[in-house]
Amino acid sequence: MGTVLTIRGLSFSYDGRRKILDGLDLDLSAGETLAIMGYSGSGKTTLLKIIAGLLYPYQGTVKTHDAKGGIGYIPQNIGLVKNLTAVQNVAHGALGRIGTLPGLIGKFPQEVFEKAYQLLEDLGLAEAADRKAGQLSGGERQRVAVARALMQNPSILLADEFVSDLDVINAYEVMELTTKICRRNNIALIMTMHDTYLVNKFADRVAVLKDGKIMNEMPGNQISIKTLSAILGGGPVE
Amino acid sequence: MVPPNPEVAAEAATALAETIQIAFVGTVLGFVFALPFSALAMRNIFPQILTTVVRAFFGFVRTIPVLFWAVFFVIAVGLGPLAGTLAIAVYTFGYLSKIYYEAFEATDPEILDAIRVTKAPRILILRHAIIPESMNTIISQLLFMFEYNIRSSTVLGFVGAGGIGLLMISYIESLQYSSLTTALLFTLLTVVAIDLLSGYLRKQFIPGFIQKPK
Fold it and tell me: Which CATH number covers residue B54?
């Protein structure tokens, strides 16, 4: 598996005083599923936004290798256009490559919608494809957001606490589908998470973020609440 | 003033139709220009230097009352409905632009983030995310503006900008108060009808209204 992302010495501050990220280093391999854990406010969302190219300026280097399809991003609160249908929201993932004029007159290439319907089908949402996003359930909206990000043909998919608002069954299903599709297509997945059970089940690797740095990395199936609290609290790691 | 003079009903109806035309065309023209220009005032999309200039221009347009715009266009293009239509269009442009850029700026930033990562041009983010997300405000404010402009267009006739106002002022000057009552009654009925129509359109096109099961 080749490396798709290399981060070295990444530091970032919103106000120029308090550093949210402070000399962070991280590597990511193609097809790998990495969970980032840490307290709320520890900089997990900031890190994802910097990787996505949404936040700057920062110190250090963030280098993507072989990211031909770019980086897909699923925001914490999903960010769907409620007045548009599920399939129209998914087609938004192709807005960067269809050209300005066709985009302005709303003439998407046929293959964009074919792929959008296919992605929704893969995520178990074929029946909801033509329903407005505002009428979908939480779990359905989450899947639409995953499909929209996959529409970019990304090499890296960033998911910011994307199942945190779902019930346990829906959260499990969305995680299972997303990680399965990512592994099948060799897409590296970085997800910020709080749920140690889901991380245990689906992540290849866990990185724990504290004080703007990665404090500890371990295989996904080794994380537990006890381990996590020991790392975050500074106590002994079992 | 009582009873109303039924003999001027046809004349009043024709003048009122002109007033509605002035309000309708003026509202549509103002809307067509307000929609793209208001986007240029969005601070979360365009650079501050551009948004400041555009906002200052909107402020200037909005500061001048519609009656003054009517006087300006009567001088510029002469007496008649064209002056009224242009006055309504400019006022609508100033008002809707401000309402729209404020609605556009309130778009959930996560929608913008999710589409920005696709490297879509700003104009496509506006076209496919911001405008659809703000559609409820766009439609409801457009309907409100049309209602408001029907009333404004009536007054514009007083300064020679066409419509039923021009007829009313001629009745006042010739002391035909019964005819004036007829014109006022026609105007009242039209405003009530437009209010009802606008309420119906809101229920049909704006989500959030509870529809009775069929």
Answer: 1.10.3720.10
